[in-house]
Amino acid sequence: MSLDSRLWGKAARLGKDTRGAHHTHPLICHLLDTAAVAEVVWDELLTAHQRSMVAAALQVPDEQARALAAFWAGLHDIGKISVPFQLHPDGPKYEDGKLRAQELSGEPGYGFGTGAVQDRQSHEAAAHWWLVGIFKEVGYPSSKRRPQCRLSHAVAQLLGGHGGRFNPVVYDKDSRCPAAHHPGMGVGSWEEQRRIHFDEVRRVLGVKSVPQGRMTPGAAVVLTGLVTLSDWLASIEEEIRTRLREEGWAGTPEDLDSYWQVARTAAPRLVQQTDLLGTGFARAPEPAQCAGETGLGASMARQVPDLVTEYGPGMLVVTAPPSKDRTEAALRAAAVLGHAANARGLFYALPTGSAADSHMAQVHAFAKQALTGPWRSLLLHSSSRLKPAEAAEQWAHANATDGISAEPGEEWAPTANSWLNSHHRALLAALGTGTVDELLQAVMPVKFNVMRLFALSGKVVVVDEAHARGAWGQKLMLRFLEWAAALRIPVVLAATAADKSVDAMLAAYRRGAGGATEPVMQPRRSPGWSFVDAQSGGGHLPQQPAGAARASTLSIRVVDGTPYDEIQAALAPMVAAGNGRAAVYRSTPAEAIRTFRQLTQDLPGLDVALVHEQMCNKDRWQRLAACRSTFAPDGEVSGPCVLVTTSMLEHVRGLHFDLVISGPAPLADLLARAVQSVGDRSRLVVLRADNPSGLDDAALVRRTNMLLGTGRTVSLPDELPLLLDEVYADELVDRMGEPAARELQQLDNRRTVRERRAGGTAGWLEVPGPRELDGDLGLLSRDHPGMEPELLSSVLGEEMVHVVCLYPGRDRQGNPVHLLEDGVLEQKLDRNPKGRPKPGQLVPYLIPVPKQLVEAMEGDANPAWRNMAALKNVLRLNLKQEDGKWVYTSPKHRFCMSELGLTIDQLP
Fold first, then answer.
1. Left, alpha or beta for 139 (phi > 0: left; psi -120 to 50: alpha)?
2. For the whole model, what pTM was predicted?
3. Start and end of every HD Cas3-type domain (predicted)?
4. What is the pLDDT of residues 789-818, one digit of tens each?
5. How far is the C-alpha of 556 from the C-alpha of 579, rounded, in Å?
6. CA dihedral angle for residue 865, residue 869, residue 873, residue 878, rounded to 10 degrees
7. In sequence order, which ranges of 416-469 are alpha helices (DSSP H)?
8. Quick one: how many helices (H) and strands (E) in the chain?
9. What is the DSSP string of 96-135?
10. Sign of the Cα pseudo-torsion (338, 341, 346, 348, in order)
């Protein structure tokens, strides 16, 4: 029997012939396309370490590992030789609407039972089930009792996971006759064609070797990434259209040998479209160039290169108060690690999207010095995830005053139609600035989690404020660091102070690297740093900075009056003096807007600015960019100015104030805000009578209030760790009377329960560590009962949805349209011929709001909108004008949109 070229692999968006029949791309051609791309990905995109992990696991030379990787990539879709796929109702059709593959069912060899079409097994799972047996036949190591620990099953399971999820183990008795369990796989000609396709891919690629190694977790991550990435690139429709075969193409051995050359010729061009080629790290400057520096930066500049030269890349942990200098020291260390590891980029992770927005300029400036070759930069957090390139472009326009432009021809920002401009691909970009959630999803059983590990395995990862995401975040971070060490990912962690959570992170990286299990401690002195090498997991304590960070005094004053009156009183000396800069933190966006309006009216000599999270993306970016100019250390201001904001600003760097005013908050948050006050005597005023944020822990707010009393003077940085420990101390309860102590104990108990529940949920959701897999990749995709997307969002701390407000208008023909900006016809909501909006167009206008405020709301989205996966968490509000305001009223809430952002009021 010869190969049947009628078996199709691709058809969607390939157009129609002159008779109206859908074009199809034969399956064998798609398999060869993917194999050809895999060769180029191996040569051009994998790092030397990624290649060595595969070769070492398979126990073959590098060239044989390359050939095997391409061969396996060429088998990824062999499960498409199945009844449900070939005869899918949405498959390619003739001009009369009849399925092109329908003719197969009329031929004796392609017969099938009634249950075959209804078989719900995916083509990815079919590949897994079938390949287990064929790999065993050709001599790959196998095991009857524990198939997952042998290569025959490991490769099959790996290839079955190219759709984003691995399938459970297929045991020996089931793999002998997979069609008995899944009739959709078919027998007769279906089975023969699978074997012929397998043999032809193997023959064309010239793969004769049979590896005898075992699949390690690191090799599995790299090979999964290579196969999935190669499939994505080989599936670009406009490129497939250039390789379509003529009608009647037979797929003879000669045809296949000829097509293999076509595929190999096209592959480099496909990989070139990724914007990923050629990026690396320049050699870091010699330590002598830093000889004039003192403190943390100088200590690291002198010693990090020697540590990395002796032990290889690993993880650096830096503990110091947040500052631009600490960020600079972390980035310098990342450059040294990146060069030593031959890394292809960097991902900078922060606790919040606003912090990522504020750091992008500094990260970009670093990349201009540290990265070589072309590179692409993306912004990655919940508000930018729809279309990261549009987000980066809008951010660049907002920050144009900093000399960054997104004009055509700029190398750093990808174009809107870039191949990288997709949620699942964006993390592959050479330079990413985003939230820590992007890392943590790599160790949660979400779709394409292993692609995240693959993307990060070729980079350096910097995590700023690594322990700022609560109990669940700490638990997941430990698991991520285990995987990072196993994959030899260089990591730089930056934290405010050394504590047990930082020690746990050091231990997790050592554990992942196979190091000793004895306890390790981060130096408690501030600033301090330590190093763990990824090769052995050994801990190294370098010589610490000769002198502590520049000492300063933080003066904390707690006031009891009416919050707004106290704000006015605190700002009055600045207004009278005619100079000074202040920040005022309010608990909600509505409070911030109200305070902004009051200060503007009551203190006309004061320049008042406003920024909060419920502004649309582009407005928030523009206002943050303006703040970096006004409130920079060397900012030029002609008079007193104040920034009114919310907790979104506390992780934003580069803003310096003479005075910070805040409502009640946990001590760690207050100190993060106070750090933005500069000078030998930093000043923080706490408004005791103000409302705390509903997101803050009531017990920690109460303990902080008790600890501070009427005020306190803190010596920084020496007293910072002691103060953070003191807020948790049991002695606080002992100082109180019995009723107050009992109430605080109840609040403490609730916090403990919440933390344990969050840690337990995170432990339940997290994937196994690299040493716990035992060969079963299915554990990385395990599906727990009750594990709904909402639960994942809750654990990720993303209980947010995004709102987009639309204004009524008319086009030039007088037809009613929806506008993204009031009265701006150029910002009309664009739609494709099917009526679907363009997600990228919405990115600048997204507004994050707490999900609890819009629970059960449907908004005004039409079916075309609701059916788009990218927009399932985007709430559309068609605004109406009432009393001169743009509003939207739901059964429970009233939304009001203005140039100051969105406010949401609960209806009585």
1. left
2. 0.92
3. 20-233
4. 555 555 555 567 889 999 999 988 888 999
5. 21
6. -10
7. 437-440, 449-457
8. 32, 27
9. TS-BTTHHHHTSGGG---TTTTT----HHHHHHHHHHHHH
10. negative
